[in-house]
């Protein structure tokens, strides 16, 4: 059971919370809803690239857990950033062996930020891996990624929910935000203050594009997890899956996207 409509899905950035995208994709797939085009920022770009390569959500989750993604970081030599991403390039190459957008089973667009020219850039041709690294390059934490003479950092700086590449191309756009933030009466420490401020900024960025989405999925349980909470990956995956199923149940029109093939 797959939809004949052109369905686009935009996956937000959000660090380890991005694992929840796999749960949402699993819920949609189980109900017969399969995107024909994907766009993603940062964690959404990582999940999106693996999904478009042909891996199932469960298989991608297993890879993330087995490779211990966040343990592959090492100190940078330069003063521009704290960490380098080169070792992650080798990791990605194990699972994206073609390293070519044109070889993907589903069309993909990856959002990054051109730090020198101050604008959002969308990659959908050429090498995938450098584009993923650029989209995931947190400013101040990683060295900027050099592509064709330009330096790039995290796509979430300017576009944390890249619906633009889907607009006018897809019949239906599904936005998925993994950074739900409830009201909080007390800010207890500086760590909470900083994390909450960053998430608020990302969400303002994402919510400004909400009206362009026909459906907007935001699992509420994501508020329990931090951006680097990778040790709780299983819980994050489950929260995304349950949140996806709940949204589908409460939005019956979404099932209209399903048709026999």
Q: Could you characterize the architecture of this molecule?
A:
There is one protein chain. With 261 residues, this protein is an alpha/beta fold. It has 7 helices and 10 strands. The strands form 2 sheets. Strands 1, 2, 5, 6, 7, 8, 9 and 10 form an 8-stranded mixed sheet that branches. The radius of gyration is 17 Å and the shape is globular. The model has no long low-confidence stretch (mean pLDDT 89). InterPro entries: Acyl_Trfase/lysoPLipase, NTE, PNPLA_dom. Residues 9-167 form the PNPLA domain. A motif (GXSXG) lies at residues 40-44. One of its GO terms (molecular function) is hydrolase activity. A motif (GXGXXG) lies at residues 13-18.
Q: Which band does the percent of strand residues land in?
A: 15-25%
Number of helices: 7
Radius of gyration (Å): 17 Å
Taking the sheet with the most strands, its summary is: 8 strands, mixed
The helix/strand series, from N terminus to C terminus, equals EHEHHEEHEEHEEEHEH
